[in-house]
Amino acid sequence: MQDCKNTYLVNLVILKSCLFFIKIFMLHQELTKKIIGCAYTVHNTLGAGFLEKVYEQALMLELKVSGLVVESHVPLSVIYRDQIIGEYFADLIV
């Protein structure tokens, strides 16, 4: 049962990532193609069943190997009505 739950969570994370990449595809087509290709390479290589952190590290490595500059856990301020209301940490910034 735990394997099914982990697989579902991993697939959900991948789906969310793919949906995000599709949204920016029109603006940055070449970069987006490279990022999506790296995500597919990671997924096809590792398959399902690992925790999100494993996929994040693998994707970061794959993006770097493909020549992209990547940062992880970058702090970003959340601003609402010109006031900082919180802090968010982006998993990866390409």
Describe this structure in words.
The chain is of the alpha+beta class and about 90 residues long. The chain has one domain (about 1-65). About 60% of the residues lie in helices and about 20% in strands. It has helices at about 1-25, 30-45, 50-65; strands spanning about 70-80, 85-94. A two-stranded antiparallel ribbon has the order 1-2. The longest helix has 23 residues, at about 1-25. The protein is globular and about 45 Å long.
Poorly predicted ranges: none
Q: Proportion of β residues?
A: 15-25%
Query: Could you tell me the radius of gyration in angstroms?
Result: 15 Å
Taken together, the total number of domains comes to: 1
Biggest sheet strand line-up: 1-2
Shape: globular
Mean pLDDT level: 85
Structure class? alpha+beta
SSE pattern: HHHEE
Helix content bin? 55-70%
Major β-sheet, in short? 2 strands, antiparallel
Number of strands: 2
Distance between the termini: 35 Å
Helical region count?
3
